[in-house]
Structure formats: structure tokens, C-alpha cells
């Protein structure tokens, strides 16, 4: 046992608590780098650390928080208890709050939490609720969070009060399976005058129109029914991603593709997961104008569908300055007979440097497309070919071997097979 005098000497020479003596903003930065559970656990270090976590301006309550050591989710009562403790003990501003409630669970204090955040300067708010038949209606206090700059909502019912004028500081908005009328959604977007990034996952507005007026919008990701989107004003839009989200569809019987693209004077990056539906012969050969600003194109097309091929060719012909192109073959039906289609000879890709082709089977039409791009791309540096199905990998690899000896327009073009 250590003599008493040695104990005294030891206690006098122990270094001070360096962490506790750091400025509060530095301690907050350290705690915010930790998972929320670990940040709360620092309260057992000493009396001085007991309430350090209570002043954090950024809190993340996601799956990592709700998961037990046995990889099970907390019960609803435990989730509610944690939220309640935050409301009771937290002091100071909360500028960022992320709440992701796990599936088959709920939280009975969401309205209280939103009211609390509306009084504490919330700027970045993520509310992801489990998918259920009855979306949670946002309380009136939500529409008083006027300092919001980043907002993500999932599975909520949004009904703004009549006096609501929008979030005039919002920069990014993401809505996933949110229940809101098309009129209110259009109004909400148009009143976010600083909005730069918009993400919409919507699949139930097949017969309605959502108007997009966003003068500062730079990127737009949309999943759902493209017939319900009318982009009236987005002069700065640089990045556009359209996908069917597995439940929606693109196009209508008479869908005006020319009108849709005529306002995209700044568009550089276009990703189309599925092409716009049209009757054979209705699709124009090309747009009546060139979109020279488009540099990257990602497109999924069924090469066995004449209407889809026509739509794809219409777009490709209209992007004369394209530098990167990725084409994925959508047809995975082994019963479809191989055939040849008329691919265009009136187009040259003078700026195309890299192509990625994602094929299903190494068929004749896929070979046609690859050869066409090699012949019409004098600046091509590399063509990447990938098989999206294990069943067709050997045939696709054989196609690549044949293309390596094919004489294209660019003597530097390299054809590379990619294993998925």
C-alpha cells in the first residue's frame, strides 16, 4: 500500500483535466464528432461533464441510437423517453436535428419536439418517419421554423396554415412520400426564393401537375410520374435527375418533350432512368435547338422498344458538346428475339471522351450501338463495357474482345471490360 505522504504527492502532481479546460465550442465540436450515445456517455466522466452533451447545437438520433447491443430496435416507450430527456435537459440553441424513427416504431412526442426546435433556432432539420398508412400531420409550430436552411421530410402530412408565406431562407428541400396537394407543393417551392437543391420522391400525382418556379435552383432529383412536373422557371438548373422510382412512369400519350427542355439553358448533367413515353412516329428526330451546355448524360433505354430508342436518339442528337455518356440497356427479358434497328448515321460526337455501356446480353443491337459510338467519336479515349447480369457476362466479354480489334474514329480509344 502506498504511504500517505506518497498519495498526497501524487495527487498534487496529477495534470489538470485538459479536456474540461478547453473552450466550450471546442468541446462541442469534439462531442458532435461522436455518435449520440457516446456523447451522452461522457456524462459519467465527472460532475463537470455530466451536462456537457446538453448544450450541443447538433443532435443526430438515427438507427445507431435506437439499436441495442443485440441489434434490436428500442421499443416506442424507450424512444419517447429519450426524446423527453432531450426536451427537459437540453439548454441553448439547436441548429441541426436529425430524427430517424425505425420501422415498426413510433414517437409520441414529435409535436413537442418540433415546437421545442421552433423556439431554438433550428436551421437543418431531418424528420424521417416509418412508412405507414397514416402519415404524421405536422403541427402548426413547424411552419414557424423560419430559420430553416436544410429540410428533409419523410412520411409526413403537410397542410400549411393560410398565413404561411414559405421558408424564405431554405436552400435545400427533400420530400419523400410526403402527403401534400400539388397546389400547395408548388406554392411551397415557389416561396422558397433561395432554394438551390430540390429532391422529390412522389408516386401518386399521376393526374395532377406540379409547377416548379425556382429562380435559384441548381439541382433537381425527381422520382415519380414525370407527367406531373412542369418546370416553368429554373434558369440556373445545372443537374437534373429523373427516375421512375419503381412505381411511377414517365410521359403521357402526348407529352411535349420540346417544351420541357427548352428552358434548360444552363443544364450540364442529365440523368434519365426511364425515357418519356410516346407513340412511334410522334417523337421528333431531334430538338429544334441544341443544348450545348449538356456535358454528361446518363440514360436507361430499352433497345428493343422503338419508341424509347427514338426518344433516346432525339436527346443524344441534341447534345453536341457531350463529354461523358453512360447508357444502360433496360431490357432483361431473355425471350425477346435479337434484332437490328436503324441507328443514326447523322450524328458525330466531337467532344465525347468517355463512354460507359451497361449491357444485358452482348446482343447484336448492343454491338451495333458500341460500334456506332466508336465510329462517331473522334476524341474518344475510353469505352467501358459492363454486364449487368451474371448470365450474360461471358457473351458481353466476347463482344468486348471483338471490339478491341474494331477500327474506330479515334486511334487512342481503349475498350475495357468491367466485372461487376
TrEMBL record:
Matching entries from Pfam families are given as: F-box, LRR_At5g56370
Could you tell me which residue ranges the F-box domain spans? Answer: 19-55
Q: F-box/LRR-repeat protein 15/At3g58940/PEG3-like LRR domain: from which residue to which, for each copy?
A: 112-325
Q: Which InterPro entries match?
A: F-box-like_dom_sf, F-box_dom, LRR_dom_sf, LRR_FXL15/At3g58940/PEG3-like
What the entry lists under Gene3D superfamilies is as follows: Ribonuclease Inhibitor (3.80.10.10)
What's the protein name?
Answer: F-box/FBD/LRR-repeat protein At1g13570-like
| Originating gene | LOC104247629
Amino acid at each position: 500500500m502506498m504511504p500517505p505522504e506518497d498519495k498526497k504527492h501524487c495527487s498534487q502532481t496529477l495534470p489538470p483535466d485538459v479536456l474540461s479546460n478547453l473552450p466550450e465550442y471546442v468541446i462541442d465540436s469534439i462531442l458532435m464528432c461522436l455518435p449520440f450515445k457516446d456523447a451522452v456517455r461522457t456524462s459519467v466522466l465527472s460532475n463537470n461533464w455530466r451536462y456537457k452533451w446538453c448544450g450541443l447545437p447538433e443532435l443526430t438520433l438515427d438507427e445507431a441510437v435506437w439499436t441495442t447491443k443485440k441489434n434490436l430496435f428500442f421499443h416506442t416507450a424507450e424512444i419517447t423517453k429519450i426524446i423527453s430527456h432531450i426536451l427537459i435537459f437540453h439548454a441553448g440553441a439547436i441548429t441541426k436535428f436529425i430524427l430517424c424513427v425505425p420501422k415498426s416504431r413510433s414517437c409520441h412526442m414529435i409535436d413537442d419536439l418540433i415546437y421545442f426546435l421552433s423556439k431554438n433556432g433550428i436551421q437543418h432539420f431531418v424528420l424521417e418517419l416509418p412508412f405507414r398508412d397514416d402519415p404524421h400531420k405536422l403541427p402548426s409550430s413547424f411552419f414557424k421554423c423560419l430559420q430553416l436552411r436544410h429540410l428533409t421530410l419523410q412520411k409526413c402530412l403537410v397542410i400549411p396554415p393560410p398565413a404561411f408565406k414559405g421558408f424564405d431562407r431554405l436552400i435545400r428541400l427533400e420530400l419523400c412520400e410526403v402527403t401534400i396537394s400539388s397546389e400547395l407543393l408548388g406554392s411551397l417551392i415557389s416561396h422558397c426564393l433561395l432554394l438551390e437543391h430540390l429532391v422529390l420522391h412522389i408516386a401518386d400525382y399521376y393526374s395532377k401537375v406540379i409547377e416548379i418556379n425556382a429562380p435559384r435552383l441548381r439541382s433537381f432529383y425527381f422520382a415519380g410520374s414525370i407527367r406531373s412536373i412542369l418546370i416553368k422557371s429554373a434558369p440556373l438548373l445545372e443537374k437534373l435527375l429523373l427516375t421512375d422510382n419503381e412505381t411511377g412512369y414517365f410521359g403521357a400519350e402526348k407529352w411535349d418533350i420540346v417544351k420541357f427542355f427548352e428552358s434548360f439553358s444552363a443544364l450540364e448533367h442529365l440523368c434519365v432512368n426511364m425515357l418519356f413515353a410516346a407513340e412511334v412516329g410522334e417523337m421528333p428526330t431531334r430538338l429544334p435547338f441544341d443544348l450545348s451546355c449538356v456535358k454528361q448524360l446518363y440514360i436507361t433505354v430499352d433497345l428493343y422498344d422503338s419508341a424509347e430508342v427514338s426518344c433516346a436518339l432525339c436527346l443524344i442528337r441534341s447534345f453536341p458538346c457531350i463529354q461523358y455518356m453512360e447508357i444502360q440497356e433496360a431490357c432483361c427479358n431473355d425471350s425477346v428475339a435479337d434484332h437490328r434497328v436503324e441507328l443514326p448515321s447523322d450524328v458525330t460526337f466531337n467532344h465525347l471522351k468517355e463512354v460507359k455501356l451497361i449491357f444485358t446480353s452482348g446482343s447484336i443491337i448492343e454491338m451495333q450501338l458500341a460500334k456506332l459510338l466508336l465510329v462517331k467519336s473522334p476524341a474518344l479515349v475510353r469505352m467501358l463495357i459492363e454486364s449487368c447480369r451474371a448470365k450474360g457476362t461471358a457473351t458481353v466479354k466476347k463482344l468486348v474482345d471483338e471490339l478491341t480489334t474494331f477500327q474506330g474514329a479515334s486511334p487512342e480509344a481503349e475498350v475495357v471490360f468491367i466485372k461487376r
